[in-house]
Design goal:
By secondary structure, the protein is mainly α. It contains 19 helices and no strands.
Length: about 500
Amino acid sequence: KQWYQRRVAITAGTCEVLKHHLGDNPTSSPKWAKVKMSLKSYLTSLTELLSLLTSNDVLCAVMRHCKAMLPYYAAFSRLIKKYVKEHIMVWGSKAELSRVVAFTCLQAVVRKIPTFLEDLLKKMYVEYTKCSKMMSPKSRDVILLMRNCLLEMFKINPSVTYTTGFLYIRQLAVTLRSVIVNKKDVETVYNWQFVNCLHVWVGVLAECDACLNPLIFPLIQVMMGVLKLHNSPCFFPLHLHTMRMLLHLASQTNKHIPLIHPLLGVLEFCVVLHKSPATKPIDLTCVLRVTKGYKKTKAYQDGVFDLVYELLLNYTSQLTASISFPEVSFPISVWLKKFNKRCNNPKYTSQVRVVLDKMEVVARDVSVRRSSVSFSPKDLDLVTQWESELPESALAKYFGNWLKIHRSVQAKEEENAAEENSEDEEEEKVEEEEESSPKKKKKSKTKLKSEKGASEVSEELSESKAVVLNGTKKKKKKKEKNEKSDVAPETAPE
């Protein structure tokens, strides 16, 4: 820790010293020629250090120091490109805190060099597409963070955003057209990379400047083409993702997007009750398609109905702000009544009946209010003014309350699922420890056996040594006796 604090203090001191001697504009300083080469080598080593660090705390400290050294990076065209490249790599691959610090460093580059924005947006978008190829509950937050960072960058300059958006929305349209014309594999479009790219442009155009309005219609056409590409119930999760994006875009831009046929087509899947063995439900927010076997389960049918019911409420509540709601809602109410007659699931029919009742109330209220109107449908300014004065409808209130309750229930279910996962992990750890414990016992037994064997061998060796020693002693005694017997007759008296 002391080493780390010392290095941070040293790096902070270098910025202050350079600013004192070179000022805010270092290239115009008379001392620049003396410091230029040394500073270039220092900045080069500093950018190369970013790719070598593994500790997030040290990485964040180095990136903050790089941000402070940005005026000196701007003096070298190659170094500023390396700076951007390394920070984009950190933004797309490291921990959450490191990503945020890297994004602030990239924002500082755009403030310092505004002409660098277009190139930076393209590189960040490409890095986002690389990191968004897969979606899971763990990676969802990371992809959402990167998407929000991109949206903040696109807000800086609408004219640059228009050129970049035109390029990449056209690329999505060309990809979709090649699949339709050449009859390629649907998975070139039905994948998370394509869907996450649509998410970015929906977010950009939902909070768009006036100059970005021409891009709204091409994006809507691309998403409608995605809905019409394949109608299999296996791909209903992807259709629901796309319809959610279209509804968000319609609500933010005040555009009417005809989604009633795709919504009712998905709802038609819930007419026939599927009776299959109980299966664990899948989180459809992180799935684009399901298998043919899971398609026939009741868990999948319930999940699809919950999502399409939410989108149906959202769509009809948006229509309640229109003066033409009685006419627009009539075919929807007719189809929903037919659905209630054919459906055998009381849970589904009761929820659809609530929507029908709320729609009838709102249609009656709008028809009463517009009966006393003096202007005609061609007076668009007066029509928009009249629509803005409408109070919140009963259907919109019901949708708001339902959404709050639904989200609270979802949050509780996610907490319970997280607790169950933690318990499962703990049980797996205990089982692993139990499995590893008999192995340890076996190892200890083998060790004891080897120790016993070694002790027995040592005892045998000691016994053999003792036998050998005893034999040598006996031989010595025999030799001594023989010598005495030989010497005795010579020394005996006569």
